[in-house]
TrEMBL record:
The lineage of its organism: Bacteria, Bacillati, Actinomycetota, Thermoleophilia, Solirubrobacterales. The chain crosses the membrane at residues 57-77, 83-103. This is Uncharacterized protein. Residues 1-14 have a biased composition (Basic residues). Keywords: Membrane, Transmembrane, Transmembrane helix. Residues 1-55 are annotated as: Disordered. Residues 29-44 have a biased composition (Basic and acidic residues).
């Protein structure tokens, strides 16, 4: 007679919301030192920054220029500024903020690389 009950293979399981989660650790429980060291390694990996790009600098400068435009229109900066004056001021700020953001990102990136290399 053929076997009717197959062995159960549970690599993934669903939760109440229907999402599938990975199975997780099934062996012995890790010691405190192992959990702390793995948490430290994860934190170090998160802290390693990406190299700066002009695109990221432009995005930051664009966000600051939009914020500056909104603040000039609300009346916090400049008092009585028209919409065209606000747009001109935001465009000028974008031109100034983009290279400034890139240089700042590059400085932070080099600082982080030096710190990571010194620890190794």
């Amino acid at each position: 007679m053929a076997q009717t009950k197959r062995k159960r293979r549970t690599k993934h399981r669903g939760n109440a919301a229907g999402a599938i989660e990975a199975r997780g650790r099934t062996g012995r429980k890790p010691t405190e030192a192992e959990t702390k060291s793995s948490m430290r390694d994860q934190a170090r990996q998160r802290r390693v920054t990406k190299p700066p790009t002009w695109n990221s600098a432009a995005m930051k400068a664009g966000a600051m220029a939009v914020l500056l435009f909104i603040l000039t229109q609300v009346g916090i900066f400049g008092g009585d500024t028209t919409v065209s004056q606000g747009i001109l001021l935001a465009a000028m700020a974008m031109l100034i903020y983009t290279p400034l953001a890139y240089v700042t990102d590059r400085w932070v990136y080099k600082k982080n690389l030096l710190r990571v290399n010194q620890k190794r």
